[in-house]
Write a structure and sequence with these properties.
- The protein is of the alpha/beta class.
- It has 2 domains: 237 residues, Phosphoenolpyruvate-binding domains (TIM Barrel); 48 residues, no CATH class.
- Helix content is 42%, strand content 15%.
- The protein has 11 helices and 11 strands.
- The strands form 2 sheets. Strands 1, 2, 3, 4, 5, 6, 7, 8 and 9 form a 9-stranded parallel β-sheet that branches. Strands 10-11 form a two-stranded antiparallel sheet.
- Strand 4, helix 4 and strand 5 form a beta-alpha-beta unit.
Length: 293
Amino acid sequence: MAIKTHYGAAMYVPATHRDLRAISMGEKLTEVRNLIFCMEDAVADHHLPHAYENLAAALLRLQRQAGVSRFIRPRDPESLAKILSMPGIERIDGFVLPKFTGANAEFFLDSLAGTDFVIMPTLETLEVFEEHSMRSLCRDLSIVASKGSPAIAAMRIGGNDLLSLIGMRRPRGITIYDTPIGDVISSLVRVFKPQGFQLTAPVFEHFEDEHTLAQELRRDLAHGLCGKTAIHPCQVDIIERFYRVSDEDIALARQMLDEANPAVFKKHGTMCEPATHRHWAMEVLARAGTADS
């Protein structure tokens, strides 16, 4: 998929937020490169009319900014249709599609066909526990990706929703990988990554526990996940630090892609084999390019 993936930290902002206009214009949360204005779980039913009004007002003043991506997470396909009719909607980059399944994919995608918007479907329903269902969804999305519209930046993993489906909430002091969702994440990586799709990591809600967040970020990276959503501004810096590519890795990635190098060589006490490490090298340089933009 020829599309710039949104690496690093993304910040959810409820569409009811009193400073939504200032945040959307880059006057607040200036350290965040990826903003997601949420109309779904972060908005109570009785606050929904205000959320639409607040979002509509923000869109009227919105201007594109270099280095900042803005997404909207609608409530459902009907909500998406309503948001698409708002003046100024062309100024956002795309949509995070909640509770995305094979059953509702057509309703979401038909509204966005032929547009320049980027989408990030969220995997957070019962079907996610069934690998054959995910393989079917992956095949369908591969067809969408081949058409190029709407463009798919990444698949988002809704860890809290998945835990909720099995009657759990993440305990304090352990990573998502130490819960039953760890196996689900591994399965999603096996299904989607070989087909060219990126995946983003679930949120970490205990935002004052930086030690466990750091442990989880190490495992996010070990699973090849391309970014992580922050639920509090204090998480943004640590997420960005973990996703920042070292000069050493950039140099090694370039060596891997240099056809003048031998088929196998040693670097920093490690065997390097371009034939098998090529995809790693390409992802490292993609991450570095995003971080430097």
